[in-house]
From TrEMBL:
Residues 189-198 have a biased composition (Polar residues). This is CHM4C protein. GO terms for biological process: late endosome to vacuole transport via multivesicular body sorting pathway; protein transport; vesicle budding from membrane. InterPro entries: Snf7_fam (IPR005024). Belongs to the SNF7 family. Residues 176-185 have a biased composition (Basic and acidic residues). It holds the Pfam family Snf7. It is a peripheral membrane protein.
Length: 198
């Protein structure tokens, strides 16, 4: 068994008893590790700057000391590159864990909602719902018929032919007009002749 697999199978005693750490615990530890590595990055960056300054200071005067400073700078740069890679891996793992935790919570809540919906529907019978909907439709039709009957124009006295009534009305109007014409006095025609052209 490799050292890495032993490391991952070993785990802490607290984690073993509970079946592994919670997502919150794992996220907290990943964040702590990120902070520690970020501090180490800052430390290495300052050491690299110092070694570079030492190398410049000795320059051509003390080549051995300058070379030793440049070798230390290279080792620090190598460590810094490793930390950069490790930080990238940890960030990726933290984001994946956060997404997994979010997805788990979403699925859990969707499961609760599905159970609640099932509980609501367990007392409902589809046949009874169909019957109820038919009753509602019938009652709506009856209500519409009543509404139409109430709102339609009353047909009191509509049993007469409208054309006959219109003809009778025209006769009455004509009689009135004739009576009015009898009482009109027209002026008499003048007996004098009209002048010819001026």
């Amino acid at each position: 068994m490799s050292k890495i697999s032993k490391f991952f199978k070993g785990g802490s005693a607290a984690s073993k008893g509970r079946g592994g750490p919670s997502p919150q615990e794992a996220l907290a530890r990943l964040r702590e590790t990120e902070e520690m590595l970020s501090k180490k990055q800052e430390y290495l960056e300052t050491r690299i700057e110092r070694e570079l300054a030492v190398a410049r200071q000795h320059g051509t005067k003390n080549k051995r000391a300058a070379l030793q400073a440049l070798k230390r700078k290279k080792r620090y740069e190598k460590q810094l590159n490793q930390i950069d890679g490790t930080l990238s891996t940890i960030e990726f793992q933290r984001e994946a864990l956060e997404n997994s935790h979010t997805n788990t919570e979403v699925l859990k809540n969707m499961g609760y909602a599905a159970q609640a919906m099932k509980k609501v529907h367990e007392n409902m019978d589809l046949n009874k719902i169909d019957d109820l909907m038919q009753d509602i439709t019938e009652q709506q039709d009856v209500a519409q018929e009543i509404s139409d009957a109430i709102s339609s124009r009353a047909t009191f006295g509509d049993e007469f032919d409208e054309d006959e009534l219109m003809a009778e009305l025209e006769e009455l109007e004509q009689e009135e007009l004739n009576k009015g014409m009898r009482d009109v006095r027209l002026p008499s025609v003048p007996s004098t002749s009209l002048p010819s052209r001026p």
